[in-house]
Amino acid sequence: MPIQIMIKDILDNIKKLTNEVSEDKVNELIEIILNSNSIFTIGDNYSQVVSTVLTAELMRLGINSYVIGNVSAPAVEENDCIISFSNSGESKYVVNTIKIANQKIKPKTASITSNLNSSLSKNTDLSILIKNTVRHNEEHYNSDLFEPASAAFVYALIDKLDQRTNYNQTVTFGYDYCI
């Protein structure tokens, strides 16, 4: 199968999966982000990649954000928010981190998951559903689409945050001074 057809198939499936994302819940997440001192993200495996992208994009908008587990991340505090990513919502690392944070610190918590009945969803203040599918075709091409769909969600969320706040800036992190 040609790569162009495979890419189109993936994008078509992501569009279907993200059509049912709740606008109300997205707006609630935006309020939580804007009213928190710092945003922390967490995920496991490929979901950690997506959580890291969210952290980088929030930083670009000038929002204090960190990846949990990164050695340079400060401790989570009560007026912070943890945004978690987990396809199944059962990742022990992610669920246990949220449970401990809820018991000891009580920050705002949100989850992006394909399972609203998961342990993660039950332990977060807000859960946003990103449907998932595993695709199979005649060429035995299999693909889990939670992470690509979550990445598309992250970029749309950042665009909504940018529109809402009028940050419309890019933090250069000093790169222009390196030339």
Key features?
alpha/beta; Rossmann fold; two-stranded antiparallel ribbon; disordered C terminus
Secondary structure blueprint with pairings:
Elements: H1 3-18, H2 23-34, E1 39-43, H3 46-60, E2 65-67, E3 81-86, H4 92-104, E4 108-113, H5 119-122, E5 126-129, E6 134-135, E7 143-144, H6 146-165
Parallel strand pairs: 1-2, 1-3, 3-4, 4-5
Antiparallel strand pairs: 6-7
Helix pairs in contact: 1-6, 3-6
Protein model, in words:
The chain is an alpha/beta fold and 179 residues long. The protein has one domain: Rossmann fold. It contains 6 helices and 7 strands; from the N terminus they run H-H-E-H-E-E-H-E-H-E-E-E-H. The chain has helices at residues 3-18, 23-34, 46-60, 92-104, 119-122, 146-165, and strands at 39-43, 65-67, 81-86, 108-113, 126-129, 134-135, 143-144. Helix 3 packs parallel to helix 6 (146-165). The longest helix has 20 residues, at 146-165. It is globular and about 50 Å long. The model is unreliable at 171-179 (pLDDT under 50).
> Looking at the structure, what is the overall shape?
globular
CATH topology annotation: Rossmann fold
CATH-derived architecture: 3-Layer(aba) Sandwich
Strand content: 15-25%
For the record, the CATH class is: Alpha Beta
Reported for the largest beta sheet, the result is: 5 strands, parallel
> If you average the pLDDT, what whole number results?
87
**Straight-line N-to-C gap:** 44 Å
